[in-house]
Amino acid sequence: MSIRFGLIGCGEIGRLRAAALAEASLPLTAVSDIDRQRAEREAAPRGAAVEADWRSLIGRADVDAVIVSTPPSLHAEMCIAALNASKHVLCEKPLARNPEEARAMIEAAAGSGRFLATGFNYRFYP
Question: Which fold has domain 72-126?
Fold first, then answer.
């Protein structure tokens, strides 16, 4: 069984993440963005649903993992909610704005038994 992904944030980084999922033949089940047209542009070619509210996306039973590609001020709230909904999470950098937010996110991951990872693409550049 393949992991089914949800994407929160369809801006530049979100578009890159959606393209990477497609390249890896991984299913993008649902997307959410404050700009519905932007969300629809990412969803349509992949057959993904559009959720107007990110909370609805993380509540979907057909989403196993969530990619959070939003401004850093939203990372902690969204990641913690997704982890508490038993979703694995890939969060764009920076993970959090301060150590307290990061600790709360790590505690949510530990409590849920789900993975929390930070996207840091430059790790793979020479």
Answer: Rossmann fold (3.40.50)
